[in-house]
Amino acid sequence: xxxxxxxxxxxxxxxxxxxxxxxxxxxxxxxxxxxxxxxxxxxxxxxxxxxxxxxxxxxxxxxxxxxxxxxxxxxxxxxxxxxxxxxxxxxxxxxxxxxxxxxxxxxxxxxxxxxxxxxxxxxxxxxxxxxxxxxxxxxxx
Length: 141
Fold this sequence. Notes:
Blueprint (H helix, E strand, L loop, with lengths): L5 H15 L8 H8 L3 H13 L3 E4 L5 E4 L8 H9 L23 H17 L2 H6 L1 H4 L3
Antiparallel strand pairs: 1-2
């Protein structure tokens, strides 16, 4: 089971790229897609979700493109995941059981609940700034 969708993983990579290149202003989607090897149409849909949540700003036209909607230190990984995948990762059963709930827990329910809470807190406290400060480890361009 993948915790994050492919869209979300691409969204995180894209946001990190923007955080590293904030001084460049608006960057054309085609340039980002080429640099990160993401299909342009797929990237455009991801960026629409991030723009709707005010995590990105877009500008149409010849000098248009996309840039971060907030400073990198004000955007958490949680914000990005929430904008693209919603909060399913923080609510759904690890085993994918529809009937799993507080009232009828599956065998992993309590352990998974604790993990989800810790994961949520970690993602909320991890900003794009934190990642770009450690970009050598991540091999971010």
